Amino acid sequence: MQPQKNRIVYLSPARDDILSIAGYHLEKVGARSARQITEAIEKAVNRLADFPLMGQTHPDPVLAGNGFRKLVVSSPYVCVYKLVDSTVFIYRVVNGRMDYPRLLL
What we know:
YaeB-like fold, 4 helices
């Protein structure tokens, strides 16, 4: 018997983040790049359905204390998420080089 998959829920800011990332790639590099980065992000996030703890506990102590985890989905982009029961909530998908923890506090 297969273990039950966790549900993935993208919160609105995460959806907006992905659209912004795709738009940036579309403008700077082209449609193929936008499609590739979107697919890479979705593929990495979808793996959380089977392995919700594969992302590290977030290194920011405040975020870690609130249960946030971080997963590099396609360098330099990271997914910030939280596992609640059997649901993985995707809070943000951002460039890991920016000061993104303030977006979550």
